Amino acid sequence: MCHLPVASLFVCLCLLESSRCSISLQDSMTELHTRFAVSFYQALSETENNSNLIVSPVSISLSLGLLQLGARGNTLAQLEGALGYHVNDARVQDFLLHSHSDISNSSQGLWLQQTCTLFIQSGVQLLTQFTQHAAAWANTSLIRANFSHASRTHSQLVKWGPNRGHDDTWPLQAGSSSGELAGSGESQGEALWWGHRMQMALVNTISFRGVWQKQFLFTNTQNLPFVLSDGTAIKVPMMYQATEVSFGQFRTVSDQRYTVLDLPYLGRTLGLQVVLPSERKTPLSSLESQLTARQLASWETGLRRIKMDVFLPRFKMQKKVNLRSVLPSIGLSDAFNPTAADFTGISEAEGLYVSDAFHDVRIEVTEDGTKAAAATAMVLLKRSRAPVFKADRPFLYLLRHINTGSILFMGRVMNPAEQTS
Questions:
Q1: β-strands 222-227, 233-251 pairing
Q2: Cα angle: 92, vertex 94, 99; to 5 degrees
Q3: In this predicted model, what pLDDT tens digit does every residue of 313-351 receive, in sequence order?
Q4: Are the C-beta atoms of residues 326 and 204 closer than 8 Å to each other?
Q5: What is the 3-state secondary structure (H, E, C) of 224-293?
Q6: Is 181:121 a contact under the CB 8 Å cutoff?
Q7: What is residue 349's DSSP assignment?
Q8: CATH class for domain 52-209+320-360?
Q9: Dihedral angle sign, alpha carbons of residues 38, 114, 154, 176
Q10: pLDDT score for 278
């Protein structure tokens, strides 16, 4: 019989406990991320009527995490309540940043670009601790802005994209004055107190392009009917393949049936889940309103590997979301209120609040996962006895990181031919 020294046994117990804590933290963070994703998506979908929709919950939560680093008082409490965690906890920070790094570098077949840019009024003296934390945050830039001309600055923020040159990036050092986003030609002194309040704006961008684990063939794509929510049928390029997928059938709390199909990307670190009401007469909005984090968690154990004939329309979306109009509905109001916001962790000066916040997200789903121009060939597909999954009517989709369960993208396709912007 082998006897371990007491010291070795102690180390083994510590490592085991550390592993359990790590697993527990990942499970709880995944659940919190999913709750935030579902609540934000539902709040946004209520304002978007019947249009295509896409958001990136992970990207938004990282941006809110940056604000949380500098929030205090009730502003901090609201951010903690919405996200479910405090980013000043070293374990949470480590988990968030490592997860983001793992997702960004998950496979050579994936391209993911995410940026978080915080525009801060020129002349505001930032706290060193905040700039240091911001420098370590995921793909974050701080930009000096001149908010003295509200409409012009607002327009520039909306147009700000992920492909800006590095020359525009303000070095993360307090007191630096490079990289200004000029709002107008007024002097700096006049710019400091636009509306008697210092300003701050948040712009978040994310783009994704992936390659399927098993690619659809262009020669199998056909122009087939897609039935819109009003019953109108249009012809769209419908991709097809016979493949083995993860598939499951589920029910909502009101007993509405729906199906979930999971298609993996190259490397099997990310997967696209397509969610389709089983009954054609069931409106997608009915399914959207009943989604919960618990239901999404049940998919992990409810999906089964099966060979199917899969029909999925091509779609491409870009969406700009004004977060300032959505976040208050999930409890984040103080950050945008000049009299209630408390960001004294960013600057000790009074009056700093979020005057604007935008989320710009893009996704493209094609045969090989990359942008390609190719003539669509009409092909007669042989009938098979395999079950069929046909996304020929409005559906939900979620792009998830398989290891952590984090939802990178979540949206709906109401009309594949519509280029959302």
A1: antiparallel
A2: 95
A3: 999 888 888 898 899 999 999 999 988 999 999 998 767
A4: no
A5: EEEECCCCCEEEEEEEEEEEEEEEEEEECCCCCEEEEEEEEECCCCEEEEEEEECCCCCCHHHHHHHCCH
A6: no
A7: S
A8: alpha beta
A9: positive
A10: 93
What pLDDT score was predicted for residue 396?
Answer: 96
C-alpha 159/C-alpha 156 separation (Å) is 5
Query: How far apart, in whole angstroms, are the C-alpha atoms of residue 359 and residue 341?
Result: 20
Residue 92 near residue 86, CB atoms below 8 Å: yes
Q: Is the pLDDT of residue 162 over 90?
A: no
Q: pTM score, two decimals?
A: 0.81
Give the model confidence (pLDDT) of 92-133 as tens digits.
Answer: 877 777 776 666 555 556 777 788 888 888 888 999 999 998
Distance CA 419, CA 421 (A): 6
Burial tier of 265 (Cβ tally within 10 Å: 0-12, 13-18, 19+): buried
Which one-letter amino acid corresponds to residue 81? G
Burial of 158 (0-12, 13-18, 19+ CB in 10 A): middle
The answer to whether residues 162 and 104 touch, using CB atoms and an 8 Å cutoff, is no
Contact present, 341 and 353 (Cβ < 8 Å): yes
Reading the block at residue 164, the tokens are 């800006």
Backbone angles phi, psi at 169, to 5 degrees: -85, 130
